[in-house]
Write a structure and sequence with these properties.
elongated, 446 residues, 7-stranded mixed beta sheet, 17 strands, 38% helix, alpha+beta, 4 domains, Immunoglobulin-like
Length: 446
């Protein structure tokens, strides 16, 4: 027998509205102590941070005020013991009360009343819950030829549900987006869940759905975190402004144009080779802001990353500390070249370089060169443990505010840099300690 736990929830819009921007969520939990549920709610329109609003609980009741969603969609989420609760809810209008009954079927949250819209959302949630559980626990039993029908079954389920339930157009559109983005996410996860490389499949992500860009060309697509990335991936290759032009040609919704446009521009900022023509890159980005309305703050971000260009001073705003927590300053080394090792405890290739770095420090006969290792670890304990394990000595610092890699546009580690005697970037991609020519290279620095 399926385990069922019931919640009685009343979401009242109108009489319980505190102001034009607020909705009151009220409910009771007759099956037990509501404080154990740790329930939250958030509008699915970007009005709240990812943390949402916690619903206050006392015994069998809970309530809270959340911003009114501009599209009527909310997400109710939390935990019931070790069971995660995650369920979209559609509450349209401003003058009606919506009593909702939420049940858990083997851990899957479902709403059994409140109209066909929420019944359809719950039914698809149940389908997705079962499919995803199978995909991640038994995915390796799927054959390559079974994968496309499996992923397309999400949309087949939506087609069936919209025939069974008299859904509003908004909910139909939400369901189509939910099905497509879920299929895409699992397609991307096939190598991990199934063990088959994507290039070995007879189909691509473009085969998951007919006219996917048409499905994503709507403000509701913003409810799904992967939607912007999917559109970005489907655009033809080219320069930033060529891709922006293609975006505006294929997507008409201004919200999605803006979101994906910023993804395109952000990708440009992160991947730009700042050692090449900085001014040309800056001009291209400014054109994107002017012509396509991408976020002007990206121009500021691009300019800040100029610190990765040869001759630039060490980035400002970076907090470096030693193992005792004392703040350190690169200016300490003024008058010497500084060979900088950017590493982290979780980076295997970084740790493999450590013995070579230690030997390099012993063998180098050049007092003009100093060494410093800067960890990008966010976990201080992991950093200290790894230093002890590897017997790391000398200048061992940590990037406390996690700003250095960002400022230097570091795409991966290990990364080695050299700063000159004036504290300016001399080599943004220096040879590794394991390179056979590194000793000679550092030995010639005067």
């Amino acid at each position: 027998m399926r385990k069922r736990v019931y919640f009685a929830i009343a979401a009242t819009l109108g009489a319980l509205v505190l102001n034009a921007q607020t909705i009151r969520i009220q409910g009771r939990y007759p099956a037990g102590n509501a404080e154990q549920l740790a329930l939250h709610v958030r509008p699915l329109d970007g009005a709240l941070s990812a943390d949402g609003v916690a619903l206050k609980a006392a015994d069998k009741t809970f309530e809270g005020d959340a911003p009114v969603s501009s599209n009527g969609f909310y997400q109710l989420y939390g935990r019931n013991g070790n069971v995660q609760l995650l369920m979209p809810v559609y509450l349209s209008g401003t003058n009606a009360a919506y009593p909702l009954t939420l049940q858990l079927e083997q851990g899957c949250p479902m709403i059994t009343d409140a109209g066909d819209d929420n019944k359809a959302l719950s039914a698809f949630n149940k389908k997705l819950w079962a499919s995803d559980r199978f995909f991640w626990t038994q995915g390796k039993t799927l054959k390559a030829e079974e994968l496309l029908p499996f992923l397309r079954s999400y949309q087949d389920a939506v087609d069936s549900l919209t025939q069974v339930y008299a859904c509003s157009e908004s909910v139909k559109q939400y369901l189509r987006l939910w099905a497509y983005t879920s299929a895409w996410n699992n397609y991307e996860s096939i190598p991990r869940a199934v063990g088959i490389a994507l290039d070995q499949l007879s189909f691509t992500s473009k085969d998951l759905y007919e006219e996917p860009l048409r499905i994503l060309d709507t403000p509701l697509a913003a409810c799904f975190s992967s939607a912007s990335y999917i559109i970005f991936q489907m655009l033809p290759a080219g320069t930033m402004n060529e891709r922006l032009a293609a975006l505006h040609d294929r997507i008409s919704n201004e919200d999605m144009r803006r979101k994906v446009g910023n993804v395109i521009a952000d990708n440009f900022v992160r991947r730009f080779n700042y050692g090449n023509d900085f001014e040309a890159g800056l001009a291209e980005l400014k054109e994107a802001v002017s012509t396509y309305g991408v976020d002007s703050e990206l121009v500021e971000e691009f300019t800040r990353r100029r610190t990765s260009v040869k001759g630039s001073p060490f980035p400002e705003g970076v907090i470096l500390v030693d193992a005792d927590g004392k703040e350190m300053d690169m200016a300490t080394f003024k008058g010497s070249y500084v060979y900088v090792d950017l590493w982290a405890s979780w980076c295997g290739p970084c740790c493999k370089e450590v013995p070579f770095l230690q030997q390099l420090e012993k063998d180098l006969q050049n007092d003009n060169v100093k060494f410093v290792s800067i960890s990008l670890d966010s976990d201080e304990k992991a950093w200290k443990n790894k230093m002890q394990t590897l017997n790391m000595h000398g200048n061992q610092w940590r990037d406390k505010n996690e700003a250095l890699a960002h400022a230097l546009n570091v795409q991966g580690i290990p990364r080695f840099l050299i700063y000159d005697k004036e504290g300016r970037l001399y080599d943004a991609n220096a040879l590794r300690p394991s390179h056979p020519n590194i000793l000679e290279y550092l030995g010639k620095l005067e």
